[in-house]
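Let us work through a complete example step by step.
Step 1: write down the sequence.
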Amino acid sequence: MSQTNRAAPGRTGAGGADGTAPGAPVLRCTPLHSVHAALGASFTDFGGWRMPLRYASDLAEHHAVRRSAGVFDLSHMGEVKVTGPGAAAALDHALVGAISKVALGRARYTMIVGADGGVIDDLIVYRVGEEEYLVVPNAGNRERVAGLLARRCAGFGARVEDLSLSIALIAVQGPRAAEVLTGVVESGAAMPAALRPREGAESGAECGADVVCGPTLLRRLRYYAAVRATAAGHAIVLARTGYTGEDGFELFCGAEDAEDLWSVIMGAAAGLGPGRAPDGTAIPALSPCGLAARDSLRLEAGMPLYGHELSESLTPFDASLGSVVGLDKPEFVGREALVERAGRRGAEGTTVLVALAGQGRRAARAGSAVFDAAGRRVGAVTSGLLSPTLGHPIALALVSPASPQAPDWPVGAQLSADVRGRMLPMSVVASPFYRRGR
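Step 2: predict the structure and record it as tokens.
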């Protein structure tokens, strides 16, 4: 989910010492770019941004998040603020979810679709004030989403501001995330809906009226909740959200505060003892992680990626995510098309998203054709890899319905994927592939 603009969008480079090819788009760098470079990161171009792909080993970073904790720079994501007395009604109109039902301090996964029901982007919406919402789109869709929100919210008594270029986002993910952030997060707002009940005689406001201290906040903040807080002396929004399948936190801060906040987080972790990798080697309490590990982690967690499992040519129902659509709302952009699509469940031309698992070490990658037991092509893999945690191939695939009467493929159904001309047997399994221990 932010960013400082080093180059205006749409401008092109002239070529020269920086290696930019003549006429090539100039990429933005996040406020933490120099930090990543100093750490020896390998970079990749992603969504118009120059982002760290890895620092050393994809597998080491993946296992660090599963076994200890990883820190990610997500400052390429967008942040759009919607405020005003009509903000909730405006977002109900603009998005598929019932945003007016989100309690103060909570968050909701939702989507913005076109009039035809096609997914323009998937989003998280945080309610951070009585009349204030933070909408987080994907990096490559940020400008379009911000523009659509401005148009769709017009006339509702709501103001839309794209704050993306002034906000940075740091995520700390993994079973030791709260431990790492203890001492970094100092205090936060005591929003009742955002907090788990007190444990025993624990005080709920030990830092003052309507304020909880950092350790209590980290312990009690609910999943998919967010509050205003302070960390390393900086004003932040602290959210218990993530894209890894692990417990963790996302810290929204001013772009100018990002380097200091990152440094304090890393310094706090340096004083903690190491964890252990699957082979018994030591893992630091906190490891910088790049986009490669983030992708393998999210796939193990069964989370969709825009441009793979989601696109403008698909409705939420075609990606088996119809549950995010509030068809009980009387009106929103795309509702008519989605009502029609919901009524065609299982019909020819529709798709469902399935989770597949195989044996051995060969993995089906995005684009691999998927076939049923009779040898008929039924769809294609959208994301696939050899799971670092599970040790066998996993994939998500968009396929034709199993049948008009029962569209969802049952667990255990046998399919196969074409991997460089060889058929890889795969079984339909329940999603997510990996579920963290509680």
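Step 3: interpret the result. Residues 1-20 have pLDDT under 50 and may be disordered.
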